[in-house]
Write a structure and sequence with these properties.
- The chain is built from 17 helices and no strands.
- It is mainly α.
- Helix 1 packs antiparallel against helix 4, helix 2 runs parallel beside helix 4 and helix 3 packs antiparallel against helix 7.
- It is globular, with a radius of gyration of 21 Å.
- The C terminus is likely disordered.
Length: about 475
C-alpha cells in the first residue's frame, strides 16, 4: 500500500474516532429525559450519567496518550474503541440507572484511550507541511457531528427509544476497529521509551478527576459552597504534590521536552480559554433562546446553525491563513473573532433580527475554527519525537476542562434570564479574550518559511526537542 493511501486511511480512522465520541456526547442530551422516565431516576442521577463520563475521560487522557507513545497508538485505539462499544452495549441493556452511571464511567475510560490516539495517528502519518490540512478535515467533521448529534438523537429516541442511542455505537465501534487494523505506523521504540511513573500518573488522574467534578458541581452548588471550595483546595494540594514529584522522578508523566515547549503549552492554554468562552456562551444562549424568547428546540437550533456552518467552512480557510500568515496571526485573529462574537451575543434581545444573531454566531464559529486548526496543528506538529500521544492527551484534556469551566461560569451567573444576555456573556467574552496572551506566544512565521529557515541550518544527529 502506498504512503498516500496509508495517510488517507489514517485520516479516516482519526476522523471516525473523533466523530464517534462527538456524536455520543451530543445525542446523549436527547436520551436523558427518556432514560429518566424509563428507569425512574432522579435528576442528580441523570446528571451523573454525564458527570461520571467527564470525570473518567479527564482523569485518563494524558495517561492514555503516554501509554500510546510506549505501546503503539493503533493498539490503544483498537482497545479503546472496542471497550467503548462494549460499554455502550452494556448501557443499552442496563436494568437500572446505577448500572448506567457505572458503565458511563467505564465508557469514558475507554474514550480516553481512543481520543489521543486519533490525533497521534495524524502526527505519525502526515509530514509537517500537510498536517494542518488533515487537522482541518478532522475539525470540520467534529463540527458536523456535534451539529447533527441532537437531530440524530431525537430521531432515534422518538422512533426506537433512548437505548438505541447507545446501540448505534456498537456497529460503529466494530467498523472502526477493523479499519484501524489497516493502519501502518512506525513501531514504538519501547527500548528507549521511559516507563510510566505510576505515582505521578495517579496524582495527575486524581487531580484532574477532582477538578472536573468540582467544576461540574458548580451549577448546582455555586462557587462558594463548602464542597466546591474543599475540592478546589484539594486540586491545588494535589497539583503541588505532583509538581514536586515530577521534578524528582526519572520518568515524569509529562516529559520535560513537552512541559518546556512554549508552542505546545501556549496552544493548550489557548484551547482551554477559547473552549470555556464558547461553550459557556452557547450554554447561556441556548437557555436564553428557549426560556426568555420562548423558542422551541428546532428554532433554537436554526439560530445556532451559522456557528456550525462557519466551523465547517472556516477550517479549510484557517489552513490557508495558517500557511500564509503563520500560527500567531491566525490564532490572534481567531481569538478576536470569538471574543467579539460572544460580546455581540450580549446585545441580543427580543427585538434582535435573525441576521444579527446569525452574524454573532457566525463570528464565533469562524474564530473557533481558526483557533482549533491552528492550536491543534501546533500541539501535534510541535510534539517532540515519540511524545505525540502525551501532547494529544494534554490537548484533549484542555478541551474537556475548558467547556466544563465555561458552563460553570455561565450557570453561576445571575443575569441569564434578563431581557438580554448582558454581563453573563460579557464575562465569557473576557474569558475568551484571555486567549490573546497564549496566542501571541505561538510561532510567528508561516509554516513554509519556518521549514525553509530550518533547512538552512545543519541538523544535529538527533532532532532537538520542542523546548529547544
Amino acid at each position: 500500500m502506498t504512503a498516500s493511501a496509508q495517510r488517507r486511511i489514517a485520516l479516516l480512522v482519526s476522523v471516525a474516532g473523533a466523530v464517534v465520541v462527538a456524536l455520543d456526547g451530543t445525542v446523549l442530551l436527547m436520551a436523558q429525559p427518556g432514560m429518566q422516565r424509563d428507569l425512574g431516576a432522579s435528576l442528580p442521577q441523570v446528571q451523573w450519567t454525564s458527570t461520571g463520563y467527564l470525570v473518567a475521560v479527564a482523569a485518563l487522557l494524558v495517561i492514555a496518550g503516554r501509554l500510546g507513545d510506549r505501546y503503539g497508538h493503533p493498539r490503544l485505539l483498537i482497545a479503546g474503541v472496542l471497550g467503548f462499544g462494549a460499554a455502550s452495549a452494556g448501557i443499552a441493556l442496563a436494568p437500572g440507572v446505577t448500572w448506567v452511571i457505572v458503565l458511563r464511567a467505564v465508557q469514558g475510560g475507554f474514550a480516553a484511550l481512543l481520543q489521543p490516539a486519533t490525533l497521534a495517528l495524524l502526527r505519525q502519518a502526515y509530514p509537517a507541511d500537510r498536517l494542518s490540512t488533515a487537522v482541518a478535515v478532522r475539525t470540520g467533521a467534529i463540527a458536523v457531528a456535534a451539529g447533527a448529534g441532537p437531530l440524530l438523537g431525537g430521531v432515534l429516541v422518538a422512533h426506537l427509544g433512548w437505548r438505541a442511542v447507545f446501540w448505534v455505537n456498537v456497529p460503529l465501534a466494530l467498523a472502526l476497529a477493523a479499519l484501524t487494523l489497516a493502519v501502518r505506523t512506525p513501531p514504538p521504540r519501547r527500548a528507549d521509551a521511559p516507563q510510566l511513573d505510576l505515582t505521578g500518573a495517579g496524582l495527575l488522574a486524581i487531580a484532574l478527576a477532582v477538578l472536573v467534578h468540582a467544576l461540574a458541581g458548580v451549577p448546582a452548588r455555586g462557587w462558594t459552597a463548602a464542597p466546591t471550595l474543599l475540592e478546589l483546595l484539594a486540586v491545588i494540594g494535589l497539583a503541588v504534590l505532583l509538581a514536586r514529584h515530577e521534578r524528582r522522578t526519572a520518568h515524569p508523566v509529562v516529559p520535560p521536552a513537552v512541559a518546556r515547549s512554549v508552542p505546545v503549552m501556549a496552544s493548550m492554554a489557548l484551547l482551554l480559554v477559547i473552549a470555556a468562552g464558547l461553550f459557556g456562551a452557547l450554554f447561556t444562549a441556548t437557555f436564553y433562546l428557549q426560556d426568555v424568547l420562548r423558542l422551541g428546540p428546532p428554532a433554537t437550533g436554526l439560530r445556532v446553525l451559522p456557528m456550525t456552518v462557519l466551523m465547517v467552512l472556516g477550517s479549510p480557510a484557517a489552513v490557508v491563513a495558517l500557511r500564509r500568515y503563520g500560527a500567531r496571526r491566525t490564532a490572534v485573529a481567531g481569538t478576536v473573532l470569538v471574543a467579539l462574537g460572544i460580546a455581540g451575543l450580549s446585545r441580543l434581545g427580543p427585538g434582535s433580527t435573525w441576521p444579527a444573531m446569525a452574524a454573532a454566531f457566525a463570528a464565533v464559529g469562524a474564530g473557533f475554527a481558526a483557533v482549533m486548526v491552528t492550536a491543534t496543528g501546533t500541539v501535534v506538529g510541535d510534539a517532540p519525537a515519540g511524545y505525540a500521544g502525551v501532547v494529544s492527551g494534554l490537548k484533549q484534556t484542555a478541551m474537556n476542562i475548558g467547556p466544563t469551566f465555561g458552563i460553570a461560569v455561565a450557570a453561576s451567573a445571575t443575569e441569564t434570564r434578563g431581557p438580554t444576555m448582558g454581563s453573563t456573556v460579557l464575562i465569557l467574552a473576557a474569558v475568551a479574550a484571555l486567549g490573546l496572551l497564549p496566542a501571541s506566544r505561538l510561532p510567528r512565521l508561516p509554516a513554509g518559511r519556518q521549514r525553509d529557515d530550518m533547512t538552512a541550518v545543519p541538523l544535529p544527529a538527533r532532532a532537538p526537542t520542542a523546548g529547544a
